[in-house]
Amino acid sequence: MAKRSSNKVHHRQLVPGVTPNEWVPRANHGDHLAIAHESPPPAEAVPEAQRRAPMRGWAARRVLLLNASYEPLTTVPVRRALVLMLRNRAEMLHSDPAGTVVHSAGRQLYVPSVIRLTVYVHVPYIARVPLTRAALMQRDRFRCGYCGAKADTIDHVVPRSRGGEHVWENCVACCARCNHKKADRLLSELGWSLRTIPRPPAGRHWYLVSKIDTFDPVWGDYVPALESA
Predict the structure, then answer these.
(1) pLDDT tier at 23 (50, 70, 90 boundaries)?
(2) Per the database record, which ranges form the HNH nuclease domain (predicted)?
(3) For residues 179 and 153, is the Cβ–Cβ distance under 8 A?
(4) 120 contacts: CB under 8 Å, gap ≥ 6
(5) For the whole model, what pTM was predicted?
(6) Is residue 228's pLDDT more than 70?
(7) Residue 70 · residue 204 · CB < 8 Å
(8) What stretches of the chain adopt beta strand conformation (E)?
């Protein structure tokens, strides 16, 4: 994990219900960014986790945004992250593994992967985490709730056809074999049991996890719930 800055943390209170994204400034016509593809840093200078990250077009990537307290807030487009850095509202903690460089008004910046706000923002607590495939797979660590094999599907413990609900307490990650064999039957009819009792994940960072499908493995340093499939 990157060394934390010793800079004084400033505080900015937001009206309850206002998300961090509404404070983060958007790019405007005065923010001129030019892309330049330079040779990436030597392999030995890039952490192994970053070298494993999938390479996509730089503009399509997302950047992890941390609060000034290092709490994960959300992800933002690369351009938005660069504007934050150029306006000194955020600092880069990790650069993008592709080694892409942008130039603006005589400044040269690596495209970031993780940035940290220099001003603390108050974020209202979200009690219930949305049930998404991404979040459920992370909760169950990509392991089948019945046999423990690698999971690639979601199963309703009590099938929807038999009154089961689409809620955290009734959904588990499941391997294709168990999903096919279970079909629309109850566990009691099969003599099966769950490896763990499914529960809603707890913690503010899970709201962020529920919206992340792909990520740079280095994000796991700041969002412990993240795990590669």
Answers:
(1) very low
(2) 131-180
(3) yes
(4) 9, 10, 11, 12, 67, 68, 69
(5) 0.59
(6) no
(7) no
(8) 10-12, 34-36, 62-66, 72-77, 90-95, 101-104, 107-110, 112-117, 119-121, 153-156, 171-174
Q: Are 170 and 157 in contact (CB under 8 A)?
A: yes
Per-residue pLDDT at 84: 94
Instruction: Write the pLDDT tens digit of every residue in 39-61.
Output: 334 444 334 433 334 434 666 78
Q: Which residues lie below 8 Å from residue 192, measured CB to CB, with a gap of 6+?
A: 146, 182
Reading the block at residue 180, the tokens are 């096919």
| Residue for token pair 């942008």 | 102
Match 């934390």 to its residue by tokens. 4
Angle, CA of 169, 203 and 125, to the nearest 5°? 110
- Position 106 scores a pLDDT of 72
**Residue 28 corresponds to which tokens in the numbers above?**
């405007």
